[in-house]
Amino acid sequence: MLHVSTRGEYGVRVMIDLARHYRIGLRSLTDISLAEGLPVQYLEQLIKRLREAELVSSTRGAHGGYRLSRPPDEIRMSEVLRTLEGPIGLYSCVADDGVSVACDWDRLNHCSTRLLWSRLRSAIILTLDTMTLAELVPAETADGPAAAIVAAETN
Predict the structure, then answer these.
(1) Structural domains of the chain, ranges and CATH numbers in brackets
(2) What would the pLDDT profile of 98-149 be if each residue is shown by its tens digit?
(3) Alpha-carbon distance 62 to 70, whole Å?
(4) Which has the least CB within 10 A, 70, 112, 124, 144?
Protein backbone atom coordinates (compact mmCIF):
# COMPACT_ATOMS: atom_id res chain seq x y z
CA MET A 1 0.00 0.00 0.00
CA LEU A 2 1.11 3.52 -0.63
CA HIS A 3 2.04 5.18 2.57
CA VAL A 4 4.93 7.51 1.97
CA SER A 5 7.17 7.06 4.98
CA THR A 6 10.48 8.73 5.69
CA ARG A 7 12.02 5.92 3.62
CA GLY A 8 10.08 7.12 0.58
CA GLU A 9 10.63 10.81 1.25
CA TYR A 10 14.36 10.48 1.94
CA GLY A 11 14.82 8.05 -0.93
CA VAL A 12 13.24 10.48 -3.38
CA ARG A 13 15.51 13.21 -2.01
CA VAL A 14 18.54 10.97 -2.63
CA MET A 15 17.39 10.32 -6.18
CA ILE A 16 16.85 14.04 -6.81
CA ASP A 17 20.35 14.77 -5.48
CA LEU A 18 21.81 12.14 -7.81
CA ALA A 19 19.78 13.56 -10.71
CA ARG A 20 21.15 17.06 -10.01
CA HIS A 21 24.67 15.65 -10.25
CA TYR A 22 24.02 13.18 -13.07
CA ARG A 23 26.29 14.89 -15.59
CA ILE A 24 28.86 15.91 -12.98
CA GLY A 25 29.87 12.52 -11.64
CA LEU A 26 29.74 10.26 -8.62
CA ARG A 27 28.29 11.33 -5.27
CA SER A 28 29.38 9.97 -1.92
CA LEU A 29 26.80 9.25 0.75
CA THR A 30 28.58 11.82 2.91
CA ASP A 31 28.04 14.50 0.25
CA ILE A 32 24.38 13.55 -0.10
CA SER A 33 23.99 13.48 3.68
CA LEU A 34 25.42 16.97 4.03
CA ALA A 35 23.42 18.37 1.11
CA GLU A 36 20.11 16.88 2.25
CA GLY A 37 20.60 16.90 6.02
CA LEU A 38 20.03 13.14 6.28
CA PRO A 39 21.91 10.58 8.40
CA VAL A 40 24.50 8.54 6.48
CA GLN A 41 23.43 5.31 8.23
CA TYR A 42 19.89 5.69 6.92
CA LEU A 43 21.15 6.57 3.44
CA GLU A 44 23.12 3.31 3.40
CA GLN A 45 19.86 1.37 3.83
CA LEU A 46 18.10 3.37 1.12
CA ILE A 47 20.93 3.18 -1.40
CA LYS A 48 21.01 -0.61 -0.98
CA ARG A 49 17.37 -0.86 -2.08
CA LEU A 50 17.94 1.55 -4.96
CA ARG A 51 21.01 -0.41 -6.12
CA GLU A 52 19.17 -3.74 -5.93
CA ALA A 53 16.42 -2.25 -8.12
CA GLU A 54 19.12 -1.08 -10.57
CA LEU A 55 18.08 2.55 -10.23
CA VAL A 56 21.51 3.46 -8.84
CA SER A 57 24.98 2.13 -9.59
CA SER A 58 28.09 2.38 -7.47
CA THR A 59 31.83 2.57 -7.86
CA ARG A 60 34.12 1.51 -5.03
CA GLY A 61 37.34 3.16 -4.00
CA ALA A 62 38.72 6.44 -2.77
CA HIS A 63 37.00 8.37 -5.53
CA GLY A 64 33.96 6.12 -5.64
CA GLY A 65 30.35 6.90 -5.01
CA TYR A 66 26.89 6.58 -6.49
CA ARG A 67 25.13 7.72 -9.61
CA LEU A 68 21.86 7.07 -11.38
CA SER A 69 21.98 3.96 -13.56
CA ARG A 70 19.97 5.73 -16.27
CA PRO A 71 19.37 9.35 -17.24
CA PRO A 72 16.87 11.16 -14.96
CA ASP A 73 14.33 11.46 -17.78
CA GLU A 74 14.23 7.65 -18.06
CA ILE A 75 13.46 7.00 -14.38
CA ARG A 76 9.77 7.08 -13.54
CA MET A 77 8.71 8.09 -10.07
CA SER A 78 6.52 4.99 -9.88
CA GLU A 79 9.71 2.86 -10.06
CA VAL A 80 11.33 4.84 -7.29
CA LEU A 81 8.35 4.72 -4.93
CA ARG A 82 7.62 1.04 -5.56
CA THR A 83 11.25 0.26 -4.78
CA LEU A 84 11.17 2.24 -1.56
CA GLU A 85 7.58 1.75 -0.36
CA GLY A 86 6.21 -1.35 -2.09
CA PRO A 87 2.93 -1.68 -4.02
CA ILE A 88 0.99 1.46 -4.82
CA GLY A 89 -2.48 1.49 -3.35
CA LEU A 90 -4.45 3.29 -0.70
CA TYR A 91 -5.85 0.07 0.70
CA SER A 92 -4.68 -3.47 0.12
CA CYS A 93 -7.92 -4.30 -1.69
CA VAL A 94 -6.90 -1.92 -4.52
CA ALA A 95 -3.09 -2.24 -4.41
CA ASP A 96 -1.11 -2.93 -7.58
CA ASP A 97 0.70 -6.01 -6.26
CA GLY A 98 -1.82 -8.47 -7.72
CA VAL A 99 -3.41 -9.08 -4.32
CA SER A 100 -6.93 -7.75 -4.69
CA VAL A 101 -8.62 -9.58 -1.84
CA ALA A 102 -6.30 -8.80 1.06
CA CYS A 103 -8.97 -6.73 2.76
CA ASP A 104 -10.03 -7.77 6.29
CA TRP A 105 -13.59 -6.91 5.55
CA ASP A 106 -15.81 -9.89 4.70
CA ARG A 107 -18.06 -7.78 2.44
CA LEU A 108 -15.33 -6.85 -0.06
CA ASN A 109 -17.58 -7.50 -3.07
CA HIS A 110 -20.17 -5.09 -1.65
CA CYS A 111 -17.75 -2.40 -0.49
CA SER A 112 -19.34 0.98 -1.17
CA THR A 113 -16.00 2.83 -1.14
CA ARG A 114 -13.89 0.47 -3.27
CA LEU A 115 -14.62 2.38 -6.50
CA LEU A 116 -13.43 5.62 -4.90
CA TRP A 117 -10.14 4.09 -3.72
CA SER A 118 -9.63 2.31 -7.01
CA ARG A 119 -10.04 5.52 -9.03
CA LEU A 120 -7.85 7.47 -6.65
CA ARG A 121 -5.18 4.76 -6.91
CA SER A 122 -5.40 4.92 -10.72
CA ALA A 123 -4.89 8.70 -10.64
CA ILE A 124 -1.88 8.34 -8.35
CA ILE A 125 -0.35 5.63 -10.54
CA LEU A 126 -0.94 7.68 -13.69
CA THR A 127 0.81 10.65 -12.09
CA LEU A 128 3.76 8.56 -10.88
CA ASP A 129 4.04 6.64 -14.17
CA THR A 130 4.12 9.81 -16.25
CA MET A 131 6.42 11.84 -13.98
CA THR A 132 10.14 11.33 -14.33
CA LEU A 133 12.93 12.16 -11.95
CA ALA A 134 14.07 14.87 -14.38
CA GLU A 135 10.88 16.81 -13.69
CA LEU A 136 11.85 17.12 -10.04
CA VAL A 137 15.18 18.71 -10.89
CA PRO A 138 14.27 22.27 -11.80
CA ALA A 139 16.26 23.84 -14.58
CA GLU A 140 18.27 26.83 -13.50
CA THR A 141 16.78 29.94 -15.02
CA ALA A 142 17.56 33.62 -14.78
CA ASP A 143 14.90 33.82 -12.08
CA GLY A 144 16.30 30.85 -10.14
CA PRO A 145 15.04 27.32 -9.39
CA ALA A 146 11.73 28.44 -7.84
CA ALA A 147 10.68 30.09 -11.09
CA ALA A 148 11.44 26.88 -12.96
CA ILE A 149 9.16 24.90 -10.65
CA VAL A 150 6.30 27.34 -11.11
CA ALA A 151 6.83 27.33 -14.88
CA ALA A 152 6.77 23.51 -14.95
CA GLU A 153 3.53 23.37 -12.93
CA THR A 154 1.75 25.81 -15.25
CA ASN A 155 2.69 23.89 -18.43
Answers:
(1) 6-154 (1.10.10.10)
(2) 444 455 555 556 677 778 878 888 898 999 999 999 999 977 533 444 444 4
(3) 23
(4) 112
